[in-house]
Amino acid sequence: MKYIKQFLSFIKRKKAKSVQNLVVQTLDPAFFILDSNLQFSYVNHEAERLLNKKLNRLIGKSILSVFPSLTYLVERCRTSYRRKIVQNFHYLLPIINNWVHVFIYPSKHNICIFIQTVPNEHLYISDMKVYRHIFEHFPEAISILNIDGFVGSVNHAWENLLGISEKRIHGHPLSTIISKSDENAVTQELKNVTKGQTVQISVNVLYRFEKHLHVDITMMPIMINQQVARIFITIKKEPQSLTHTKRENKNEVKQSLFDKMNQIIGWDWDYKLDQLTWLPLKRDLFGIESEDQINTHRKFTMLVHPEDRDQFLESINRAKTKYDEPSKISYRIIRPNDQEIRYIQSLVQPNHEENHHQLTGVIKDITDNIKEQNKLNRTEQLYQLITEHSLEIIAYTTPDGRYEYISPAVRRLGYEPDELIGRYFSSYIHPDDLYKIDSPDYTNVLTCRFRHKDGHYVWLERSLQYIENNQHQVEKVLSISRDISERIEAEDIMKRSEKLTMAGELAAGIAHEIRNPLTSLKGFLQMMQYGYSVKQQYYNVMESELNRIEMILNELLLLAKPTVNKFQKQNIMMLIEHVTTLLGSVANMSNVELIINPPKEMVYINCDESQMKQVLINLIKNAIEVMPNGGKVTINVQSTTKFVTISITDEGSGIPEEKIKNIGQPFFTTKEQGTGLGLAVSFNIIENHNGKVSIESKINQGSTFTLSFPTME
């Protein structure tokens, strides 16, 4: 209160006119004054810039004649002037098509308008905690009703105004707090709101359900899909006469206005007498105990940071000779009480209305702005440092995969960043990996081959983060890609090694399997050698045995030899039959019966034939080995419209529950002579085929490994 009175009395004094002009000219908000006829009588520099009109094109002109689109703003000004009320609201300013914060303050003969631009994203924050905070701390009593008029949530102002807590009113009809005489009127207005109208009504409500209180109620429909879903209601006391309390409230509004002036402080300096006058004096800003510590320019200069002192003095001396516009000076001060450094911005101009040896100026503390800017700069520098020097490729793309930004690390692939901007990610990946982008499981991580500028392909692992707008729609995609060629090569070596190991383990069983048909062939040849007549049926048996030997050897060679990954449409039952043929001898030697339950119709998946057979051999062979005394291995194949599942069930001793989570990890095994790489390789192959593995096991009853793969039509 004291500060406001001092400031108002200061700017009304004649000798302070230049300071007053400096104050309003240097305000961050645009500021202009309309007279009672709504004509421009004053405009500061920021208002000229915002309105895009020079001072001489505005002074004396009606605001509507210059800006016909500002009808809403003009109506708010008329209301403020007529009712002598201050207004403070957000407004989409048509001139700049941007949201602004408007503050209207009427006086006896004029209307003062402050306009501050507001970034759109500051008005729409998709954070429910923020909305809840606004709801709870809104100065007027507000609530949300359902369309039947029952009260939902209420804020603290509601509880303070009506003396009724949310707990007591929640779920009750609004009529509970309305006096009997006004119940019908409120009920009728509620019906109008449910039809989409916004209504205002003055009624009596009950304070603590007893005492009558006269209030203004505003009810507004909340529309969703062109239907009234909820009702927003505000309740405030009816305006009273200009009592002491109301004057206090006005002064609070004034204080808020001056707070928005960024703590501007005016000063006069008579440099002939070296007398420095401050208004208002901010001892906490300067860190001083009394005005005597800075009542001369010489004393104040001692507060200026030593590194800025010479430049500060030079700027002050230059300002003495400038008459057309204020001089801007930026410097630092060191507060004597705590040695904290504060950043100051000052405007200085000669004051020739009083004498020829006086400077007038204003200063404001911009320390918080500088610190925030420095913080943003450091964050930006850190972000730039990370993106510019990271070995991983950081990129922004549109939802359909078009590059908008890509970090310099892409040079590892032979490209300059500008070469990929505007192009699509899918244009550079291997044709055999395109199906992974269309897969429903492709959401966050993709492993694919990316074309190097030299023409060869490099394996990349691409992690994604989706960035949504306020409507929860994907606006951009942040991707981090890393070269995993060496890892893929190591995995391929491990797969080939495991295949060779598996082929060696199968060799003994296959030798036994081949020996039987060879014995038959040898017998028939001996009969022919001794001149026995050979019937046609013997030739058929010999041909059948030779075909069986050829098929077994082909399967063994396919398993052992290195192959190039090639994904094709494969009949899953054909793969299983080939594998069981190869493992038939191993099963017979272990007294194990292989049982296959096929699906009702043919089922296809997209896979690499050699790798898929490797997985099936590994799992079925493991199932055989866990039953040294014989048993059954059951292979069930089922299909849906989206997935194919293959279940391999044994009758072994089972796997302890605490060990199941480790199955598939390299070098973890339950076998005495095992390496633990077989299932690790198999699980890796399944993952690369967009498949999933689940394990169920019961001690002394057996285990079931279930594989799931996307179906192909």
UniProtKB/TrEMBL annotation:
InterPro entries: HATPase_C_sf, HATPase_dom, His_kinase_dom, HisK_dim/P_dom, HisK_dim/P_sf, PAC, PAS, PAS-assoc_C. SMART domains: HATPase_c, HisKA, PAC, PAS. It is an enzyme of class 2 (transferase). Gene3D superfamilies: 1.10.287.130, Histidine kinase-like ATPase, C-terminal domain, PAS domain. Residues 509-713 form the Histidine kinase domain. CDD domains: HATPase (cd00075), HisKA (cd00082), PAS (cd00130). It catalyses: ATP + protein L-histidine = ADP + protein N-phospho-L-histidine. Residues 327-378, 444-496 form the PAC domain. Keywords: ATP-binding, Kinase, Nucleotide-binding, Phosphoprotein, Transferase, Two-component regulatory system. NCBIfam families: sensory_box (TIGR00229). It comes from the Bacteria. Residues 16-64, 127-197, 284-323, 413-433 form the PAS domain. This is histidine kinase. It comes from Terrilactibacillus laevilacticus. Its EC number is 2.7.13.3.
